[in-house]
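Record format v2
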Amino acid sequence: MARHGQWTDEITRGRFVMETGEDFLLKGYSLPMSPRGRAAIIDPPPWHYGGDVLHLAFRADAKKMRELLPPPLMPGPDPQEGVLWFTEWISASDANPDLSFVNPERSQYKECIVMVSCQFQGVTGYYVPYIWVDNDFTLVRGLFQGFPKKLGDVYITRLHDLTPKVGGKKAGAKVKGICVSGAQRIVEGSMEFERQAQPSDVPPVKFYLMRHFPGIEDITKPDIHEIASSRVADPKVADVWVGKGEAKFHASEFEEVADLGAVTVTKAFYYSLGITITGGEVLHRF
Amino acid sequence: MARHGQWTDEITRGRFVMETGEDFLLKGYSLPMSPRGRAAIIDPPPWHYGGDVLHLAFRADAKKMRELLPPPLMPGPDPQEGVLWFTEWISASDANPDLSFVNPERSQYKECIVMVSCQFQGVTGYYVPYIWVDNDFTLVRGLFQGFPKKLGDVYITRLHDLTPKVGGKKAGAKVKGICVSGAQRIVEGSMEFERQAQPSDVPPVKFYLMRHFPGIEDITKPDIHEIASSRVADPKVADVWVGKGEAKFHASEFEEVADLGAVTVTKAFYYSLGITITGGEVLHRF
Amino acid sequence: MARHGQWTDEITRGRFVMETGEDFLLKGYSLPMSPRGRAAIIDPPPWHYGGDVLHLAFRADAKKMRELLPPPLMPGPDPQEGVLWFTEWISASDANPDLSFVNPERSQYKECIVMVSCQFQGVTGYYVPYIWVDNDFTLVRGLFQGFPKKLGDVYITRLHDLTPKVGGKKAGAKVKGICVSGAQRIVEGSMEFERQAQPSDVPPVKFYLMRHFPGIEDITKPDIHEIASSRVADPKVADVWVGKGEAKFHASEFEEVADLGAVTVTKAFYYSLGITITGGEVLHRF
Amino acid sequence: MARHGQWTDEITRGRFVMETGEDFLLKGYSLPMSPRGRAAIIDPPPWHYGGDVLHLAFRADAKKMRELLPPPLMPGPDPQEGVLWFTEWISASDANPDLSFVNPERSQYKECIVMVSCQFQGVTGYYVPYIWVDNDFTLVRGLFQGFPKKLGDVYITRLHDLTPKVGGKKAGAKVKGICVSGAQRIVEGSMEFERQAQPSDVPPVKFYLMRHFPGIEDITKPDIHEIASSRVADPKVADVWVGKGEAKFHASEFEEVADLGAVTVTKAFYYSLGITITGGEVLHRF
């Protein structure tokens, strides 16, 4: 079946001119496309993110970690290394820079990310086998990039200078992240703050991802099935704390993350992070 | 970039053999793929559905309705006709026939669907410009098919024979559906039961859909952008009531459904519906 | 501190005349009281309920069960007997008989109830040590009666005649209830249908409850602390199935229900139930 | 009915000794009482709070404001003055100081509070006619004090230094609060930051409240019906910004807050607040 027209539009709005010269009236970077282009579940990149990250570097069984990596990704320098993130994001886009004001509900979310150390053509990074988020726009935006997002309720301790008995960031402060999905607690991670550190102490995270979209006519032939990496601009790290941590994956009828077995947290960080994602690169098509 | 292997697997599980002969270890019809293939957010079709439908046929401004139709879909025989559904589904798949028992949370959802009468090569049906659901598996399954799903809280009156003052299905019974998304009430529809009717009285619904998945390298070039229709098997309609109805779309900063203006409900139905979706057909690629 | 006026109002609305003769303008059976009396979180009784009940009679350690009973309640004839209910209710009141139509969200809820067999002055019944619900109006209405409600997400299998692979009520059908609260799965109960039965086969349930409201000036002196029973009118049972069941209480940092240990389900029922609660009786004040 | 024993316990746990000398085995400041006293929905005071407050002082029709005040509270010095708060709290108690770590879900909540200026015996403060929160423990704790809480989804803009296009607190920053309850948007309030200010610039808030608990035997005779005030210790205000604001109450089938009509925001503040509530005082019993 041939394409009957030409996609001509500027970067933020999908305008399509048919071969007949008729305009394609529906606009939007994503579904739902609509006459004014306001209804789309997510705006086009660049996508901006700022938030606080509970970052737990862990070690798990090397064989179990290997099983989570799709070819052509290879295990990283330390095949046992993984990272668990609990994050709380405020996000924005160039197309709707005011979104966090107009509708806070459509700009905030929490997520729990499991990462496995890997490398591709000698460049190390992390593959994301599992990730849960608590809002729809980020779920779909994630799928576009290759984050295998599901909905989960993510709870993260918040420190506050003025809450008696809790207090703000300081040595001895403790934070925990909990992820519940499908009516079960799935992931837990925690950290006790020890001391402040430098942004350069935080291990950088490069994401390797699987983009996948099943076919509808023949379900054994996906329309998209490829390994990609995110294109990240302007990462900023601030207000870094290091400490000791713990992590636990809970058994579940459906989730397989607990197959990793017991894990040991080797380093724990809590910091503020700002990034912009401008798109991604396809590294491998199956 | 060439594909480096062969997709060989049986219908329900994605096993991939690399050119190197190495198995692709991750399984799943959808993301997240995992070693045992249990973690995927949704199983492969056939997808089974059974539930109760509040079906409101409405008329709206023909020009506004036309603006919601992507080419090559053309307006239906009555260009003013649309349908609003509020449904509560119990769903299942062949791959996990026990799912509604093992984890009810992953088999039930409610949705609100807006449809616009259309035709393609002389076959009439309905295009779905807007749809909201309240669970993640159906959101993602919908995207695969071309339903432009967002999350919404969907509330629907339930009748029950044993609730005093409410009662069961009978003449005079009243049901209402409400859809809230993005912190706003977006859609409302209601019906007052008048009399029982035959399954053949219910207008059949054939879905025309837009499948769309943005590219990640060049965001103006979608990886998928096409018009499809669902492949529906074994529709069963039962316990049909007809009556009079009302519908209202509420203004919102983001949703455009209220641009349809005031609508008039011409027919109202409430019935039980069972269907199986086995996949779809791509009708047009842009 | 003396009372400065007189409560004079009719049964459904709280109108208060001050000693000064000035009307107390705020109306409502419950907070929030408001000028028009529409804002109250719950209407006055009679409260009507209709829904479907998964009823699991279980046996647990007699000593553990005894520890859950406040005096003057005494263990029931079988001190090991308890009941677990998962229910889905449609509720209504005389004051707002149309509520389930006008706002379905304010008339539907699911709950998980744990009951311990007991007796008071020779009349057997069940004390409710723990209960979780998923909506606010029922939480507060429960507190008024003495149900110690917390919020929980309650998931219950729904059977539907038209869902392929699931189907409706029949021998072999299986339903499960799951209760999640405080980010943890707390209770699970399930049943496999064996055969239909008579309404008279269903063990009746009389509720014994603790009404408690802490004092605000001296927190060791509750304003209310008493044992009560519900006044239930017109119970109707229909569409009864019996079968075999299972139940499990999960450990939690906060909930103590799992202290009951392993329990054995002795009888499992699934049925429709309609009742009206018109108030209660105070049996004992501490 | 006489009380048959004596309440003897220390401040944090309810132990009751029967006349018979038998201990009352169930512990807890609130329901559900349990053998180990861990299950109660809320711990006893002191309750600690710290969080960020969007504080909008507004003026509304004096007559409409008056109608919201129960006797013996009298209108405040400016009978048109009200306050709208959107707050995000981290809370803690002496009994479970670690709660925000062990279970973040049970220590965080957001709320939307409407206040009406009033006075009692010459002491000015604010009566709270309406308030919505998004968690159960605070709903019940609120009822104990006289806050007429309902559940609502509360969304508040979060500023973050590292989110591009959003940024942190600075002149020109904009925040909005939205409250949705009963499937409707009910309250909206927003502020544009202009400049930093002193803690002493923030108007203090003293709460006047109605404690109410219906009777169960005769529903026209409440067990508790009184006017109280909160006992607040150690208020701390920090990081104050002032600016200009807007507020809007939306019409609803049930809520009456929109009966206030259009309101004008006279002053807008955003600040961090820490307080401890140690109980309350009953000012008037009806």
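Chain C touches chain B through 46 residues (CB under 8 Å).
Confidence is low (pLDDT under 50) at residues 1-7, 9-14 of chain C.
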